[in-house]
Amino acid sequence: MKTAAKTDKTNANKNMETRQDEQNGQSGTVEPFKTSYLQKFFIEQLKDIYYAEKQLINGLEQMKQAVSTEELQDAFEEHKKQTERHVKRLEQVFKLIKQTPEVKQCEAIDGLLKEAGVIINETEEGTYTRDAALIIAAQKVEHYEIASYGGLVQLAITMNMNRVAEILDKTLQEEEDTDRQLTDIAESYINVEAEHEHGYSWESQEEPSKASR
Ligand SMILES: [Fe+2]
Ligand SMILES: [Fe+2]
């Protein structure tokens, strides 16, 4: 019995050493994502935001075409270009962690972009009301991105992937800047102008029962 227990202990130590070796390998060049569920979750989240960023390129173009204030059109155009860079950065991250870039459908971003589409359908072209509403729709998207990148940066730091954290943090900063810029545009005049818009009523295209669900 004693001998068996000793053997078990020795095996357990060996297993631990093997695990330690694997973990050491993770920070080097060997199979970076082999054992941890957190790392798997990290990759899933990367795929989610990769999908979201790709969808946003079209979404921002649609919003840009729908608004009439020049400053807001420029802001959407600028952020669309930034979003293209965000896609490239994510591909860089996938490469760093030796994963093929893949998308995973993100229902949250699909829903947020659908809401922006509803605003476009329900508001009159050329009104400040539409611009004010689309700023809020775009900010909802920014907040989703901020939450996603904020979480990914923290996880990357926890898992000692400092270069990955640095790249994702660059995007995080840009999302936060965009959010602030949209607030400034809304507050500088669009919201006030929208409040003074008369002779215009919001045309809800949804059935009341559906809208209240
Ligand atoms: Fe982005
Ligand atoms: Fe964004």
Question: What's the SSE blueprint?
Answer:
Blueprint: H1 2-26, H2 37-66, H3 70-96, H4 107-122, H5 128-158, H6 162-195, H7 208-211
Helix pairs in contact: 2-3, 2-4, 2-5, 3-6, 4-5, 5-6
The site of one fe (ii) ion (FE2) has 6 residues, from helix 3, helix 5 and helix 6.
What does this structure look like?
By secondary structure, this protein is an all-alpha fold. The chain has one domain: Ferritin (Up-down Bundle). Helices cover 78% and strands 0% of the residues. The protein contains 7 helices and no strands. The longest helix has 34 residues, at 162-195. The chain is elongated. Bound molecules: fe (ii) ion (2 copies). One fe (ii) ion binds next to helix 3 and helix 6.
Keywords:
single chain, 213 residues, mainly alpha, Ferritin, 7 helices, disordered C terminus
Brief synopsis:
With 213 residues, the protein is mostly helical. It contains seven helices and no strands.
Number of domain modules: 1
Query: What is the CATH C level class, in words?
Result: Mainly Alpha
Heteromolecules bound: fe (ii) ion
β-strand number: 0
